[in-house]
Amino acid sequence: MILRWYATRRRPRARVAAHIGLAVLALVSTTGAALAACGPAPSGTTVGPVSGDLARIISEARKVRSIYCGPGPGRVDTRAPSPTDAPRTQANPGPRRPREVVARIDGDSQTVTAVARANNLVVLETRRIDVLDAQSARFQIPDARTIDAVIAQLANDVRVVSSDANHLFRLQADSLDDARFAPKLIKLAAPAAVGLTGTGTRIAIIDTAVDDKNPPLAGRIAGTFNSLPDVPIKSRRHGTVVSSLIAGGDGFRGIASRAQLYVARAFDLNPDGEGITDYFAIEASINWAAGLRVRILNMSFAGPYNRNMEAVLKRVSTQGMFLVASVGNEGPDAPPAYPAAFDSVIAVTAIDERRQVYQKANRGRHVFIAAPGVDILAATPGGAVDFVGGTSFATPFVSGIAALILERQPSASPRSIAVRLSIATVDLGDPDRDPVFGHGLVDMSLLFGR
Q: Measured at the alpha carbon of residue 318, what is the angle toward residues 432 and 260, in degrees to the nearest 5?
């Protein structure tokens, strides 16, 4: 009806622009409940001939509707295929811990022991996952059975909710060594002009350990968690870099300098110098973050599809946690990487100063938004600064921006944050959302401009 009203009236361009701005803001502020009916999307055929400005309103209305009515904050194109999931009796492909499975058990630790005995497995670790109201157990296969065979066996045990391989995940960094272009590219001055700094917003970062003695991070880390207590800390670099991009540092501005940062150490270096971990460590970190009621979870890592991870992330998203992950650095021909490709997660790709996509970035219909991620200035352990690159480092830009949105509107849901982000973009690739840049480069002046 609003669109028909606009189509039948001629107004001065300045007033039309003002009304369009108000209309878009109204669309962004609409709650999920108000769109629960999810009726037909507005189109040119339903409102008749429209001007270019009105066509843009229609486009934004479609975008808002698709996010609210789609299956998750990160999945806007509801026609996009769901992730290829192996049958419940098979492990999904991808790197994994040999001879290990992780199962979610309906019961207590005694039930875990009974499941292990009944299925001839060795319990390596077990923990309570409060957010799923279940036990999670890491089992070792003591004989020649394959992981698939054990998963098939566990599928017939009524005490087992789900099981999968203990997949491996890698930090998405690259060694890149021009300028401090990122703040200008995303218009970082806009939220500062209206006094937004992320104050009071909790962000959890699953990463390596962090150098909390580093000047820009000293006194800024509100809490830490170590999901690898038996693994000596070899590196604090990646976690320090990611944290500093949110908090700021010497010679560069952070996105949300007053947000409360909580760092879960789930990664460290393997003998080849790669930042790597397994699902079981990530799961513990997610559970810790959920217990703290953090509002944003930064995941600058990628790996294969894992059904257990999908379940726990879906649960914390429905409880109000905004999930952000890097699309991955495996290249344009690589399959979708997870957790970025889950419906509940915002997938972030990286661009350079020329607004060109990072050449190693994964592509796909799940890509949601682009942020600076090539030759980015950040803090490193010991008080130094360095230039870094990779989709890992585009991700904290979006996490920080989400913190500013929540500072302005603490009740914002993950879906409404996604709506705001998708509209406040500069299109870089094919019209509308595309598999390279998603909705485009996030522009903070469109979010927080006066």
A: 90
